[in-house]
Amino acid sequence: MDFRALRSFVVLANQLHFGRAANLLHLSQPALSKQIRKLEDEIGAPLFYRNTGGTSLSAAGATLARDAGDLLARCDEAFLRAQRAGRGEIGTLDIGFGIATYELVPRVIARYRSRYPEIHVSLRDMASAEQVAALRDGRLDVGFIRLPAPDDLAVQPAATERLILALPATAGDIQTMADLHGLPLVLQSRQRTRYVFDQVMAVCAAFHVTPYIAQEVTEFPTALALVASGVGFSLVPRSSRRDDLPVIYREIDHPAADWSVGAVWHPERGERVVANFLACLGEELAAKAPPPHQP
Predict the structure, then answer these.
(1) Rounded to whole angstroms, how far apart are CA atoms 186 and 232?
(2) pLDDT at res. 74
(3) Alpha carbons 186 and 44: distance in angstroms, whole number
(4) Percent of the chain scored above 90 by pLDDT?
């Protein structure tokens, strides 16, 4: 059905006068008559009767007039909702993140929600590899992953992170990675995240340390709990540090301990909701950036 013709019909049904209706619609009377005839052809019955007494609605016309207003209102609402969705004002946003952005992402979301309260935001704690797969098949809109990112994803650098050494409180005499040769290691499972596993091994190799793996875990809080109980040492992201446990932390002075995290998204999807979120991310990063150095 031609909704423009339907709108013309509603105006004519209210006016019951072709001349007045045509003026209100900014149409010529022949153009209005053509639209009405098209509707009548689709319905298969006359909508109006024109006689010396004026214009009146037929039975089909009266029925259509009762329903057309609601139909057009729903059409207008659907059109406006589509416009709002296109502007990123309503809809959903699925975000993946990991421990390196536990502090950043909630701040960005708070900023985003204050601006777009009708967007439903879903957060998922996922390893970088899981996020990449979810971005590619459309289950995520934005992810925060360890860089570098795959070439098919767009990137906005967001944070830096580094591994630190976590030791039992009784191991205060251990000062550097070089003192750990042969000691038990509590390690994030490679099945959980191969990036952390491989990076821990790279840091150990950089200091010529060959630890034996005492236990593998799936979460960093579990690793720290085991360290606190004396099972062994661990290398964990600085952001996972917990000062309420009997654990000693040491910085690792080596570039192998460092990595960068970026916001990533699929560039071919190009939804406005993603662009709006990235704008909020940029604002949050700018707000937290250190002031420029003054000579």
Answers:
(1) 6
(2) 87
(3) 79
(4) 67
Q: What is the value of pTM for the model shown?
A: 0.74
3-state helix, strand, coil in the chain (%, to 5): 45, 25, 30
The residue among 174, 184, 102 whose CA lies nearest residue 144 is 102
Residue among 172, 194, 188, 195 at smallest CA distance from 235: 188
User: What mean pLDDT is predicted for residues 164-188?
Assistant: 88
Question: DSSP letter at 240?
Answer: G
Residue type at 51 in one-letter notation: N
Cis peptide leading into 267, omega within 30 of 0? Answer: no
Kindly list the distances between the CA atom of residue 102 and the CA atoms of 35, 98, 118, 238, 286, in Å, as whole numbers in the listed order: 59, 7, 23, 11, 18
Q: Report yes or no: 87 and 274 within 8 Å, Cβ to Cβ.
A: no
- d(CA 241, CA 244) in angstroms, rounded, equals 9
For the cut 60, the answer to whether the pLDDT of residue 207 exceeds it is yes
Cα dihedral 285, 101, 264, 206 sign: positive
Q: pLDDT value at position 290?
A: 58
> pLDDT tens across 109-142, in order?
999 999 999 999 999 999 898 999 999 999 999 9
- CA distance readout (Å), 209 to 176, 196, 227, 241, 253: 11, 17, 18, 23, 15
